[in-house]
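Ticket reopened. Same input as before:
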Amino acid sequence: MGVLSKLDILKPLYKCGGGIYVSQVFSGANVRITADKAGSPQVKLFDDIVTTDHGGAWLYISQPLVESSLVTAVQEFNGDVSPPETVTVSPIPYNQEYLETPVVIPPLYACGTIIPFDRIVNGATTDVFVTGVKKATLPLPGPRVNLWWSPLVKGDEISARQRLCKTQSSLSTKVPVQSYPKKSLPKPVITPPVYNCSTAIQVTSLVTGALVTVYVDGDYTHPYTTAPATGESAIIPIKPVNPGAVITVDQRFCKLVSPKAKNVTVLKAAKLPAPVITAVAPDYVTVDGILSAELRVVNVTTGKDIGARTCSGAGTVVNISPSLKLGEKVVAYQFFSECSKESPPSTEVPYECPPILFDPKKWNDGGMIQGCNNCYNYACDIRTDNFAQPGKGASPPVYPWPCQCSKVKPAAEADGLVPCKEKCPGCSHKVALVMDPGFDFHWYRQDSDGTWSHKPGCSAARNTDESDHPISNPETCDRGAYTDFCGYFCVDKTKVNIKGGGCKCW
Amino acid sequence: MLVKPEHVEIMLDVFSGMPNPSWAVPVKRIAGILEKIQNLPAAERISRDKLGYRGFVISNPGQIEEVPEKVVAFRGVIGITRSGKTTYSKDTAGIEEDLQKMAREMGYGDVLAHYLRPVK
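Engineering reply: fixed in the latest deploy. New output:
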């Protein structure tokens, strides 16, 4: 294997945070997290092997984060080291006076095994209270998190408070623990296939908080493992099961037990199917693969490995490095690192530019989309739903008035549009700025077929000029009152940032 | 803009990139227009998908019961939207002219004059 995927740190990181959530992990890799601050020696925050069945992990760090320090995370496996992920630690949010109050999400059922929270400040230390008594103190990832808990007791009231350094939130509303109100629980469903080296299964049709019990080969007196249902769909960690074995699950609150799921037979991992690449971007690839298997992405053009992580099932994003160039092809493999040969390769998929199509249906809804996206939105092919204004996406904003080419051009450039005369590079597309001097600006865009289209204000997008002729050249077409031609720009949608101030059309 | 329920908003639909001129008025300020739209002869819808002057839009953000959701006046045709359905009438009562006069009173005379001038 060549390059492990660059880790993704859950952002933002705050001063005094006590944990860091990372994704893109290759299970079994050694994750190293350090913090650097000018004038201080480097601090080792985490250095250990991380196992994960879905590529993500919450890591408790050795000491609280320090404001303005640079946190760096890498993973290493068999001598391969990922590119570093770096994040600067932010000051405590909310004016440093108080933290947002966390929310305990109801309902909570007796014998339930999780407490779901919302509005957790990422990394904040959270105190959990049961009927007014503090029962746990630990840092949590935010904003939403499920805390695994000993079975809840009917009549108890759960609340929480969070803090960073000495900045504390109010105590949350107390949520009472109640009996599950229905007489039966739904029958869970195991998502097939399950392989003999799988370290997790996906189960659906669950009730949040229910205890999920896994059984193997019909041995209902000795459950194989248990885990809480973190939602209607949950990943349940398991130890590998022999091929040919039969697994099933049920879910329960106290004595109320669901019917057992339909049996699933465990398959041999040696027959892993090829994964399916569903999207290719310069810096990542999206893959539908097997939960808990390892994924490896190869640049076919260069022959080099460019990313690897543990798969979280369908829609797994694999960070890749170095970035792909236009036309380069990628392929993915999946494997269980401990016990099998890897799958056949996926179909080769090239990195191509998404086309810019004249697609009136996308814009002309006669309602909010049409009314709140103007010629600038349309030309950039970016919906903001608030009448984007050149320069407003820049920091600090650049104002485009009075309406003259000399004012609107630099404002658009501040948003990331690049002046051009010839063909636009990479996946950027060409747009043209015209002016009704002193009154208004207007934009045209070149679609992938070479013709031009535009959207006058809140009215419909169209590909004809003011004389109802197709537009082959925005310099010479009928533009009505927009007499000044200001020039051409290239729009790279991944780099341009446009914003508006509001919408009154709709 | 915060619009009180007893107000409607009037927009001069004229720009492509810049926000259109708009202003809020009390419902009683357009009582005459609301009266006039009651009995107009039917007309065909006309397209407003061009650059430049596209008429006026009266909207009803406060959802006042006696006021339609939207009234559009453009080139002699009035579009009236009620319960999501739009009907079209001939502007035989000079509603668009009333709105143009109001726009001039609001200080948008130069914008109106610019976009209503004949284009070479």
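The helical segments of chain A are 360-363, 368-372, 375-380, 405-414. The mean pLDDT of chain A is 93. Please confirm and we'll close it.
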